[in-house]
Design goal:
0% strand; 151 residues; mainly alpha; rod-shaped
């Protein structure tokens, strides 16, 4: 057993330089490779996350501009519709006014024609009345005229 312990002691004593070498290698690896690599990776992650956040902000700004553009487009369409509606109303009003004017002129012409017809009717009645009286007078004169005075 002593021999085993001695061999174990020699083995441990022989492993000390290896442990020191591995420890030194770990410290150098940390100082030379691992820490700078971790710093670069963190910087890259920070830049990536910053770029992602910047993209999100740009997307939000673009969405805001898009919604503003859509709002302005809706307003322009509404204004155009109001202008078209007012023009249509003006055209309808002008058409109604022209129609009323034409009706009034037609009514005036009808009234004038009625008055002319009434005048012509009255004149024809007067002429017929006068003709009827002269015919009646002629008939009476011929009826009452002595028979020998006939031609």
């Amino acid at each position: 057993m002593d021999d085993t312990l001695r061999q174990l002691g020699e083995l441990l004593l022989g492993a000390v330089p290896t442990v020191i070498f591995v420890t030194l290698l770990y410290i150098l690896y940390n100082a030379i490779v691992h820490k700078p690599l971790r710093r670069v990776l963190e910087e890259r992650r920070t830049k990536t996350e910053g770029a992602v956040e910047k993209s999100r902000a740009d997307i939000a700004a673009a969405e805001a501009r898009t919604s503003e553009y859509e709002y302005r487009l809706r307003e322009a369409r509404a204004t155009l519709f109001r202008v078209q509606e007012s023009r249509r109303k003006m055209a309808l009003d002008a058409r109604a006014a022209a129609l009323n004017e034409a009706r009034m002129k037609a009514q005036a012409q009808v009234q004038a024609a009625k008055a002319d017809i009434q005048k012509d009717r009255a004149a024809a009645q007067d002429a017929l009345q006068a003709e009827a009286q002269s015919l009646a007078a002629e008939i009476m004169r011929r009826v009452l005229e002595p028979a020998g005075a006939e031609r």
